[in-house]
Amino acid sequence: MAEYRILHHPILAVESRTGVTFYWQGRELLAQQGETIASALFAAGIRVFGHHPKDGSPQGIFCANGQCAQCLVLADGMPVKSCMEVVRPGVRVEPVEGLPELPQIPRNQVSAEKPGFSLHEIEELEVPVLIIGGGPAGMSAAIQLGQRGIKTLLVDDKGRLGGKLVLQTHRFFGSINAVYAGTRGIDIATKLESQVRGHEAVEIWLNSTALAVFSDGKVGILRGIPSQSLQGDFAEVAAISNHRDSYVLLKPQVLLVAAGAREKSLAFRGNTLPGVYGAGAFQTLVNRDLVRAAERLFIVGGGNVGLIAGYHALQAGIEVVGLVEALPECGGYKVHRDKLHRMGVPIYTSHTILSANGAEQVESVTIAQVDGKFKPIPGTEKSFACDTVLIAVGLDPVNEFYAKAQEFGLTAFAAGDAEEIAEASAAMFSGKIKGLEIAQALGHDVGEIPPDWYRTADILRSKPGQVIEERIPAEDTGIFPVFHCSQEIPCNPCTSVCTQGLIHIDESDIRTVPQFIAEQVDKQCIGCEKCVTVCPGLAITLADYRKDAEHPTVTIPYEFLRESIKAGDSVTVLDASGEALGNVEVTRVRAAKANDHTLLVQVKAPREYAKRIAGIQIQEQWVAEPMDHYVERLTDDTVVCRCERVTAGEIRDLIRRGFRDLNEIKAVTRAGMGSCGSKTCNALIHRLFRDEGVAYGEVTDATRRPLFMEVPLGVFAGVTKE
Questions:
Q1: What angle do CA 415, 416, 418 make, to 5 degrees?
Q2: Banded pLDDT at 229 (limits 50, 70, 90)
């Protein structure tokens, strides 16, 4: 069986781990210690985890975050979410094929005296501050509270703090002084966690899921037992196994919701095939678990999430066939778009996905150009061979706890994406401010929160601004940086690392484009290359005319395997927009000290285009060629509710018949009744109403279930299995 593990990565350390033997349908497979069942199956090339009992459709991973049940499998006969369940030695895993049979217990074996379980009292605790979410916002708030000695409990459902930061291998934008701009997300997570753990006032519960906020001001938490309290094999797997949890009721004086965001989905034909999933699931497999989750990837969505995921895929050795965006321009940062494009990935703006094609899993994708009303234009269809379609069409805040807290009159705050969708740098600063606001709410004297903090927060959460014409320097003597960033975004690391002070950005608004001001300060660039290595967008090169004015040396940032390029190679260089300039010779490849994995590649280039060089083509053009015919998915299996397999056609029919209440639609079709709690389908149903011309005010939203995720009822009664 094929092995799909990432054995070498340009940024991430690939460490050797102990092998764990388990069984899939009776076949012996090898996982790595601490690995989830889903990741172990993906590493073995298995994408189909079972079939839905309603229509036999293939099921596979979807969220990789424990919030749905698409990846359900049977582990030693028990149904578990494979993305959350750690592989245990010898565990026998089977696909879910239809509804499993319930065990039949003969009457004579049922004993009223020994029910097989015991009950314990539900623990109730009071805490000054409860923070739900250990990502950038939650940790930043906890640091502020911890510095002031305010007792704080930080709860997160993962095995380590960091949230989505632990999946981000790229450098971050923003302010280098305020939010670690120029530092990789994985390293920011480590820095913040270290600070949080440095405060005795902050207690941390990992592997612990917030279930609900109740009307009496209490918050229900399904708490994972810390690994140090377990013995033997369980101590190794406690990090993410949910077998030994206890239910706790917390009553906070103040609640901070920093639970992040969830990905939006799309309705199109074949949208539930194994191989169609979001960027979060993809980055979890690739950047957390070091599993090559695809061979050929196609991306839907041109925001920062989709653009960054494409770059991560290339770093992991995955072919990126293309990216499609319905709008005329990508919504993400232009430097992210340009970076992906100049590495050989075509970007199709004003296009949409028509279908993911295949029988049991994705085999190809079909796209088409759209008109001004975003309707596909017949005759523009193209299909591409791929095995994975990554959906990155935006995020929705996970704000259910905050809404309930407000409804019940609790003192509550929201921070990060739970408050407003923005970049992680904005979430960090948002959490910092909320930490001080919470301290004030508790009566602590923290002084006035600096007004410029709020302005900085607004700048960090701002959308991409104006695109200006790229400024290519006129000079062709000496040595100097060339800036290939031409959009107003919050970012200033290059100004902070220039030892000569030759790079200027207006510090009152770091969204301005950097300028080289050597003439104004009467100094010269010394060629230290720090600006080249620190730029999050890989958008700075260094042009050196000192030795050869006709064939200057250009230094280019490079974040791929060291073995993939060497002196003497001929490479294709491209401009900022991805247009090929020519083939040039590599003269040197080196890693500067403390450059955090960014290689510096020097090339000799002709004078006429040396200053326009922005990057090196990574992927050959043939990888992204469309198929010689387009594939039409004849079956209209556009699914809105993945859990209950309810199609868009069924919902449209009810809307046209006059249904305006999502609760009625749920009663008729079961849409929204599945294990994910309508986290995905609710927004898609609202979109169908909009497509049918029904105003938002005419629609009655579905009544949300009180619990954030499904949990055994016995948990609330204090059931402990014997």
A1: 75
A2: very low
